[in-house]
Automatic annotation (TrEMBL):
It holds the Pfam family Cupin_8. Keywords: Iron, Metal-binding, Nucleus, Oxidoreductase. This is F-box protein. Gene3D superfamilies: 1.20.1280.50, Cupin. Signal peptide: none annotated. It is found in: Nucleus. The keyword Translocase does not apply. GO terms for cellular component: cytoplasm; nucleus. The lineage of its organism: Eukaryota, Viridiplantae, Streptophyta, Embryophyta, Tracheophyta.
Length: 988
């Protein structure tokens, strides 16, 4: 391009002509906007003007474009623009040979200049002293516990002297042995990206990135077990309470870290307020640390008011050292040190830290929970948000006036314009400028009046919230069920620390409140008082469940009172039905001993027995109970529950638990305790024969369940459901389907509920994110039909009458490994084997004492609180994915015992239009997985890792559920118990 400017006047400013109306925006905001575009759009925009050409050819922009679109293996092509063009299949080399990059005068940008400087600076000439972190040589466990653990960081030498890694973890040695191994890469993107080690080393040698990619892999030990043999946990850090969890349930805790000069970790507090040790094997690292509650300059803490999730907005490590550190007064500078090879640094719970690699470095680190930080970890996972803000930001979050929607000018930080600020309901805890504090008097923690004491921090907990019916923070390092299981395993497995575990359980689970409720229930029903072993609820399940000596007491709390009432009401209605029919299923369901409601009134617990009929006075005043249902015999029966499921479909978490305001009323159920263990505790120990027997047992019992008649749905009941659910005004394709097609009422509400779930399916999958492939999320609306009536597979019989190809039945909805009970096979289990057709081990002969010959037999199905009425295929989802873990052989064994057809066909094979797709059972199951209220897809893409690269939902469907298409059921087997009349309309 030819530039005609008067040299006497100097170069013309290109901004007005090059940017137009965008001239009012700062460069950093324009660059942030460009990152939201596609690579092809950026290429087109670069042709608009000379200024846009400059902005659109910045390497940091193309780095972001690459990371925002790539998922999986990455191969760096020498520049990020070349890498993206390679991914887009654009022949960049031809274009490069034909045209040289353009250069323009008349354009200056301090933002771009500073970023360019950070990209190309080297740290060799920077002078760093040894710092002020204490250095010790092989201190004793007692000295470490007394002087450092939970108090302050320390550098310890000599802990890695005997490690093979001390000599073998060099770039050359690792390249020779693990060159083709793919390791996970850390970068500012939610996508999982990996690089082979040889590709990563090549990238390290030529890159000029402001924030270079670095290996940060928590699965390195599973990918290359040999690396675990090269080091061992130092003796100072042996205590780790997370080690009671199974490997697949334990949160990430160890990482291999490899990075070039200028890379590092920006300011953060370790997840769940855990402590950490980090041993450097190669290179040098510069550390900066602040005590808990002292937010570093340039950092903003975001606290989500809905679930307490904490996000940190921070400059890169290099940017902070170059742009912020020089501005600090001496009294405001962090605690800092330079870590040398062979040294191990300890970072206590809650401490802010930032790490900068001064040269190519290799390190290993692990996080842990011990007696010093256990209560803080439990506090971090408690529901609510204020206490999390205080833990991270100290007194900046102490009162409402300090948690404010303010914008901090983080110099040249592209993440300042993150769109998440516009979509999340959150508080932003501001930081101060250098030297600016609320008071000149500060504690040793560096924050005015702030004390990192768990008892003080616990004062900020919301006492009306509990762990069971509050939104779960996406940032927590462990799931809800795993967290409860962890506490229960500590309670059972480490009785010596029960006082400490109880304190943690009271913080995270509000265990004291549930324990007091338990004692009141026991006293009312003349049951023995809970022993010390029985004080803590079991870890599995979604409600507080207590295992007593002869019974099980379950308190319904999950998702609030309304959900709890429908859970217990439908369960009691089901048990009442079992008492009236001669179904063998009742022999494999725990006996109900009592049920009722416990509520807190004027500080006193009161008990009211309740069998599910009528509306007790304590409930009648609840706003969610309409007047017309207050006199119903079963106001919370399964059909009312179906109405409730319809109302909840498509709602956000907060909307769905609107009745959580009634936090002082809880239904409960007492059942007889089964002997033995749940399958979740036995999975890794049972034999293959036991697994096959379990599959056969479940086939028989689900057949018995699906054959049961359901309560009649009369016209008046359905009229109430339509009026209360607003069905006539539903804006879906099935709005008038009952009138047009005379679809049975029980199926009508079923398909309307599916239609509501379909409306927001894309946003729900986006929210769940990884490991669900984004390419599939984009295709989900196209894959799932809008006409859910076709799910019923309506066909004409030989008389020309329309018939429904499915049978509506009771469904358990939650057949998972913690809801299956197993007993040691012996004399008492012979009847089970006889009744279910299980293959017995001939060596048993009723001998219950020979441990080596014992096997485990399934005896009971537990927890029917998720009961519903619908398509039996729905029950296959948790069964196949959770109990069978995708084992096709177990699914075949189950179906061989189940025998009922899951899709009835006409003899003439005359089906609805588009029936090829709707005639596949695999399609039905896959759609139910996608529309499921739980993240079932996360389990699918974890079990079948290869499906993360799937190109279509049809591919996923075939791999996961293809076996169902081979199943035809057994002709003539779809009959009800001889003493009952079918209640399901079969023709119309």
């Amino acid at each position: 391009m030819e530039i005609s400017e008067s040299r006497a006047l100097g170069p013309r400013d290109r901004r007005p002509d090059g940017l137009g109306d965008f001239l009012v925006l700062p460069d950093e905001l324009i660059c942030a906007i460009l990152e939201s575009l596609s690579a092809r759009d950026v290429a087109r925009l670069s042709c608009v003007s000379s200024v846009m050409y400059i902005l659109c050819n910045e390497e940091p922009l193309w780095l972001s474009l690459c990371l925002n679109t790539l998922s999986g293996p990455l191969e760096y092509k020498g520049s990020w623009k070349k890498t993206v063009l390679h991914l887009e299949h654009v022949p960049y080399e031809c274009d490069e040979a034909r045209r040289k990059p353009l250069n323009f005068d008349g354009f200056n940008s301090m933002f771009l200049y500073r970023r360019l400087y950070r990209c190309h600076t080297t740290l060799d000439g920077f002078s760093f002293d040894n710092g002020n972190v204490e250095r010790k040589n092989k201190i004793t466990v007692e000295e470490f516990s007394c002087d450092y653990d939970g108090k302050k960081p320390v550098l310890v030498t000599g802990l890695a002297d005997a490690w093979p890694a001390r000599h073998t973890w060099t770039l050359d040695h690792l390249l020779q042995n693990y060159g083709d191994t793919a390791f996970k890469i850390s970068q500012r993107s939610s996508r999982k990206i990996s690089m082979t080690f040889k590709d990563y080393v090549s990238y390290m040698k030529v890159q000029h990135d402001e924030d270079p990619l670095y290996i940060f892999d928590h699965k390195f030990g599973e990918v290359e077990p040999g690396l675990l043999k090269d080091y061992s946990v130092p003796y100072l850090f042996q205590e780790d309470f997370f080690d009671v969890l199974d490997k697949d349930k334990r949160p990430p805790f160890r990482w291999l870290i490899i990075g070039p000069q200028r890379s590092g970790a920006s300011w953060h507090v370790d997840p769940a307020l855990t402590s950490a040790w980090n041993t450097l094997l190669c290179g040098r690292k510069r550390w900066a640390l602040y005590p808990p509650g002292r937010v570093p300059i340039g950092v903003t803490v975001h606290v989500n008011k809905e679930d307490g999730d904490v996000n940190i907005e921070t400059p890169t490590s290099l940017q902070w050292w170059l742009d912020f550190y020089p501005l600090l007064a001496d009294e405001d500078k962090p605690i800092e040190c330079t870590q040398m090879p062979g040294e191990t640094i300890f970072v206590p719970s809650g401490w802010w830290h930032c790490v900068l690699n001064l040269e190519p470095s290799i390190a290993v680190t692990q996080n842990f929970v011990n007696s010093k930080n256990f209560e803080f970890v439990c506090l971090d996972m408690a529901p609510g948000y204020r206490h999390k803000g205080v833990c991270r930001a100290g007194l900046l979050a102490d009162d409402e006036g300090s948690i404010e929607d303010s914008t901090i000018n983080i110099l040249y930080d592209k993440d300042e314009f993150n769109s998440s600020d516009m979509t999340r309901k959150e508080k932003r805890v501001r930081t101060f400028k250098p030297g600016e504090y609320q008071s000149s008097e500060r504690t040793s923690n560096g924050a005015q009046g702030f004390s990192y004491d768990v008892n003080i921090l616990a004062m900020y907990l919301d006492e009306e919230r509990d762990h069971y019916n509050s939104p779960w923070s996406a940032g927590n390092c462990i799931g809800q069920r795993e967290m409860r299981e962890w506490l229960f395993k500590l309670w059972v497995g480490k009785p010596g620390i029960r006082e400490l575990v109880w304190k943690g359980a009271c913080l995270a689970l509000n265990a004291g409140k549930w324990s007091e409720s338990l004692s009141e229930v026991c006293a009312f029903h003349n049951l023995p008082s809970p022993t010390d072993d029985e004080r803590l609820p079991v870890g599995t399940g979604s409600n507080p469940v207590y295992l007593m000596s002869n019974c099980v007491i379950k308190i319904f709390v999950e998702e609030g009172l309304e959900t709890s009432l429908y859970g217990l009401g439908a369960e009691l209605e089901f048990y009442s039905l079992l008492g009236k029919v001669n179904s063998p299923l009742k022999n494999h369901i725990p006996e109900v001993l009592a049920s009722g409601i416990i509520y807190l009134e004027n500080g006193t617990y009161k008990i009211l027995p309740w069998d599910g009929n009528r509306v007790p006075d304590v409930l009648a005043k609840c706003s969610f109970i309409p007047e017309k249902v207050k006199g119903d015999a079963s106001p919370f029966g399964v059909w009312r529950k179906k109405q409730f499921e319809y109302r909840k479909a498509g709602m956000s978490t907060n909307e769905a638990i609107s009745s959580a305001e009634y936090t002082r009323i809880w239904p409960y159920l007492i059942t007889k305790r089964c002997q033995g263990k749940i399958y979740a505790e036995l999975r890794d120990t049972v034999s293959r024969e036991d697994e096959l027997n379990l599959a056969s047992f479940l086939g028989v019992q689900l057949r018995n369940l699906h054959l049961l008649p359901y309560p009649p749905l009369n016209i008046s009941t359905f009229s109430d459901i339509e009026q209360e659910s607003g069905l006539p005004s539903t804006n879906v394709s099935m709005e008038d389907v009952s009138i047009k097609s005379n679809i049975p009422a029980e199926w009508d509400i079923f398909i309307r509920t599916l239609s509501k779930k379909k409306k927001d399916v894309s946003s729900r999958l986006i929210k769940w994110g990884d490991p669900i492939p984004s390419t599939l999320i984009e295709k989900v609306d196209q894959y799932i039909s809008n006409d859910f009536a076709k799910f019923l597979y309506i066909f004409k019989d030989e008389n020309g009458l329309n018939k429904v190809g499915k049978n509506c039945s009771w469904i358990h909805s939650d057949i998972m490994d913690d809801n299956i009970h197993m007993e040691l096979c012996g004399v008492n289990s012979c009847l089970i084997a006889k009744n279910t057709g299980l293959v017995k081990n001939g060596s048993l002969n009723g001998d219950g004492d020979n441990a080596e010959s014992k096997t485990w037999c399934p005896s009971h199905i537990l927890d029917f609180s998720n009961l519903s009425i619908g398509d039996p295929v729905y029950d296959l989802i948790p069964l196949y994915l959770d109990i069978f873990r995708g084992d096709c052989c177990l699914l075949k064994r189950f179906l061989a015992s189940y025998k009922l057809p899951l899709l009835r066909r006409s003899s003439q094979d005359e089906y609805v239009e588009g029936g090829d797709k709707f005639g596949r059972l695999s399609y039905h199951a896959m759609c139910y997985c996608i529309l499921h209220e739980e993240n079932v897809l996360g389990a699918i893409f974890s079990l079948w890792d290869e499906l993360k690269m799937a190109k279509s939902w049809e591919e996923v469907e075939q791999v996961v559920w293809g076996e169902l298409n081979n199943y035809k059921g057994f002709p003539g087997s779809y009959t009800f118990l001889s003493s009952l009349e079918p209640t399901t309309p079969t023709s119309f």
